[in-house]
Amino acid sequence: MRIEIDVSTLYEGQAKLKDLDLYLKKVQELAGEGNEIVLFGPGPIWLYLKIAHLLHGKASRLIYQSPVVKELVIFDHNPY
């Protein structure tokens, strides 16, 4: 299943490091296990990196999407 996550919806205003565990918990709930995940939207690079680390081994495929690069595959562990 393909699940799209707008990183900017994980926080209000400005993302704060002190709330990182909360953001990661939200991502984990949205992403589930074994799905193809697409991350997009404005957000700090540290948050994107932590999300990618969290999803490694849980998502079958991780994609970053932006108007500039369209879709960029971060990792693909789908054997098919």
Overall description:
This protein has 80 residues and is α/β, with parallel strands linked by helices. The chain has two helices and four strands, in the order E-H-E-H-E-E. It has helices at 20-31, 45-55; strands at residues 2-6, 36-40, 61-66, 70-76. Helix 1 (20-31) crosses helix 2.
What is the strand and helix layout of this fold?
Layout: E1 2-6, H1 20-31, E2 36-40, H2 45-55, E3 61-66, E4 70-76
Parallel strand pairs: 1-2, 2-3
Antiparallel strand pairs: 3-4
Helix pairs in contact: 1-2
Strand-and-helix sequence, N→C? EHEHEE
Largest sheet: 4 strands, mixed
Strand-residue proportion: 25-35%
Strand arrangement in the largest pleated sheet: 1-2-3-4
Averaged pLDDT: 96
- Describe the global form: globular
Number of helices: 2
- What share of the residues lie within helices? 25-40%
Distance between the termini: 14 Å
Quaternary structure state of the chains depicted: single chain
Number of domains: 1
Total strand count, please? 4
- Rg, alpha carbons: 12 Å
Return residue spans where pLDDT drops below 50 for at least 5 consecutive residues: none
Provide the structure class. Answer: alpha/beta
Brief overview:
With 80 residues, this protein is of the alpha/beta class. It has helices at 20-31, 45-55; strands at 2-6, 36-40, 61-66, 70-76. It has two helices and four strands.
